[in-house]
# Entry
Amino acid sequence: MGCGKSTAGRTLAARLGNGWRFVDTDTRLAEVAGCDIPTLFRREGETAFREREAQILSGLSAGEKLVIATGGGAVMHDGNIATLRSAGLVVWLTARVDVIVMRTERREADRPLLAARGDTPLYTHILNLLAGRAPFYQQAAHLIVDTSDRATESIAAEIERKAIAWQKS
# Structure
């Protein structure tokens, strides 16, 4: 969270043009559930949320021209890494912890995993989340792009360049 998946994904899909569409799995999940993500988390818990997320991912067609932004924890659910990698190029967007804190602290209540941190300082909580998820991100990703201190257009351009090179390899 806070690495720019949705913002960069929208920009990348627009740059690619030619029938490419952007899909945010959290947005799609909220539409299907009929409520926002924090409400869904409160009602059903993280396990049920991850199950629904996996269903959304498996329902997206490989071969479609999609730029997909997943929730940051999507790679933690069994089978999602294989689903993502079989669908196409997987890019892990990273950012320094201080950048993630700055990007997420304004909307902490909208992010259930941050809102539930209790007395743990936000910086420490994010560091712990990243430490737990990093091996899964590493396993899922074909490419890694750091979004710290960068404009969205620059991030999208880098992903586009790397994607072209990846396709050729």
